[in-house]
Automatic annotation (TrEMBL):
It is found in: Membrane. This is NCS1 family nucleobase:cation symporter-1. The keyword Protease does not apply. Belongs to the purine-cytosine permease (2.A.39) family. It is a multi-pass membrane protein. Keywords: Membrane, Transmembrane, Transmembrane helix. The keyword Transmembrane helix applies. The chain crosses the membrane at residues 39-61, 68-87, 163-183, 190-211, 231-252, 272-294, 314-335, 356-374, 386-405, 434-454, 460-476. The lineage of its organism: Bacteria, Bacillati, Actinomycetota, Actinomycetes, Pseudonocardiales. Gene3D superfamilies: Hydantoin permease.
Length: 479
């Protein structure tokens, strides 16, 4: 079934309800992003400290290297397929994620997924800014050792963060806000640079470690192989789930970016390059560099910034740490700044512009003191995993509505009308079926997180929530 999209004719100005639109949420007049821009988006998303640690952790599960690579390819292949599914409705209509959600949740009900996704992004935005500031601290302490006392939270600390940490966090907070404030075109150029820059540093770092340790020291299995035969299958499935879960946030609101794609074919090409190809290459570089830290530095180091900090050259340390800081800023902007900007703007388009929505998220990221959140595994476990349990159902409802219920037919003008005759008005602007499906999926998905006896299923919460949300919504809609 091909997509059918009813859009206003070129040159016309449809009378969209001001309660539902502003220039940021309205359908794009020009869609200019090519395959490289989408490719660079995924590079920025993967090439960060978090991406490095996630990729490295896959090789520490006690599997053989070929099993890890197979699980990695299957997981990223699933992500690629799902991203294409999410990309299409926004690319063909030219509207961001919260607006396309109006087709399933209702013109007002779309605020439910928007706020949920926005809150998750705010938490991760603060955490990623904190991680980037930690990388910057490595540079500052290497260049100016006298700053060491100011890195001690016991001597100069406030709300759990030392003075130097506050300075680095504040600096990066303003840098990210400045990049964001200049608009999507500047963000596009920024992410076009970030991903490739990390590759340069990674290849140089890999070459340096190979020079120090020799080719024979490379080991693609980080630790002993503990799982073989049938016993390895549950571990491989867990690795696949980990890969999908890592991308679940950006995957849900990928429409915020695919809407800029000049064609769906260009978006698909960018996804193939940025996901299976890029993630595989990056993961191999990660495991090679991580394995070589043992013979070179005498211990296994999984943090790229710490690895760079062990290099003898001050220039190399500064360059490497700054690059990972910039890369983390890149992923933060694309994954955790743009999403809440659209999401919060969708709540009240005339009062909250795209820029204002982003700044709400930025301020919120400070108020939650993300360093305390990150340093408390129990808090982050319950806060983010409970919120994360909603991501799967939201994804399931979006996909079910567009592909299974509406058969890829969207009337764009009806996404922006409060008329009771509009296709997406439902009951006073809300679709009870979509909300019920989301709640049902979230309740089932969060159970393994909160109930100890179900803990083994916790790694599959995204899949559980997605399947339940999709099934409940499809059945309810067809009735």
């Amino acid at each position: 079934m091909t997509d059918t999209v009813s859009r206003p004719a070129i040159g016309t100005t449809p009378q969209y309800d001001p309660r539902l639109t502003n220039e940021d949420l309205a359908p794009l007049k020009k869609q200019t992003w090519g395959s490289y821009n989408i490719f660079a988006f995924w590079m920025s998303d993967v090439h960060s400290v978090g991406g490095y640690v996630t990729a490295g952790s896959l090789f520490m599960l006690g599997l053989s290297s070929w099993q890890v690579l197979l699980a990695l390819l299957v997981g990223i292949g699933i992500v690629n397929v799902f991203c294409n599914l999410v990309a299409k409705p926004s690319q063909v209509t030219g509207v961001p994620y919260p607006v396309i959600c109006r087709a399933s949740f209702g013109v007002l009900g779309a605020n439910v997924p928007a706020i949920i996704r926005g809150l998750i992004a705010v938490a991760w935005y603060g955490i990623q800014t904190y991680l980037a500031s930690a990388a910057l601290n490595v540079v500052l302490l290497k260049l100016f050792p006298a700053l060491m006392p100011y890195a001690d939270v016991q001597q100069y600390g406030f709300l759990g963060l030392p003075l130097l940490g506050w300075a680095s966090f504040t600096l990066l907070w303003f840098v990210q806000a400045a990049v964001f404030w200049t608009g999507m075109e500047t963000i596009r150029r920024f992410i076009d640079f970030c991903g490739p820059a990390v590759y340069v540093v990674m290849f140089v770092l890999t070459g340096y470690l190979i020079y120090r340790a020799g080719w024979g020291a490379i080991d693609l299995s980080l630790g002993e192989v503990r799982h073989t035969g049938l016993a390895s299958i549950p571990v491989m499935l867990g690795a696949i789930a980990l890969v999908v879960s890592y991308f679940s946030g950006p995957m849900l609101n990928f429409g915020d970016f695919s809407r800029y794609g000049r064609s769906f074919a260009a978006v698909k090409r960018g996804n193939v390059l940025g996901l299976p190809v890029n993630f595989l290459v990056f993961s191999v570089l990660v495991v090679v560099t991580t394995s070589l830290t043992l013979p070179v530095f005498g211990e296994l180091i999984t943090d790229p910034v710490e690895t760079v900090a062990r290099v003898d050259s001050t220039f190399a340390i500064v360059l490497g740490a700054l690059t990972f800081s910039v890369a983390t800023i890149g992923i933060n902007i694309v994954a955790n700044f743009i999403s809440p900007a659209f999401d919060f703007s969708n709540v009240s388009p005339q009062k909250i512009s795209w820029r204002a929505g982003g700044m709400i998220a930025a301020v919120g990221s400070v108020l939650i003191t993300p360093w305390n959140l990150y340093n408390s595994p129990e808090v982050i476990h319950y806060t983010l995993e409970v919120l994360g349990a909603f991501i799967g159902p939201l994804f399931g409802v979006l996909i079910a509505d567009y592909y299974l219920v509406r058969k890829q037919k969207v009337v764009v003008d009806d996404l922006f009308t409060m008329s009771p005759d509009g296709r997406y008005h439902y009951r006073k602007g809300y679709n009870p079926k979509a909300i019920a499906a989301t709640v049902a999926g979230a309740v089932v998905a969060v159970a393994p997180v909160l109930v100890p006896v179900l803990a083994p299923a916790a790694q599959y919460t995204w899949f559980i929530g997605m399947i339940v949300g999709l099934a409940v919504y499809t059945l309810a809609s067809k009735r």
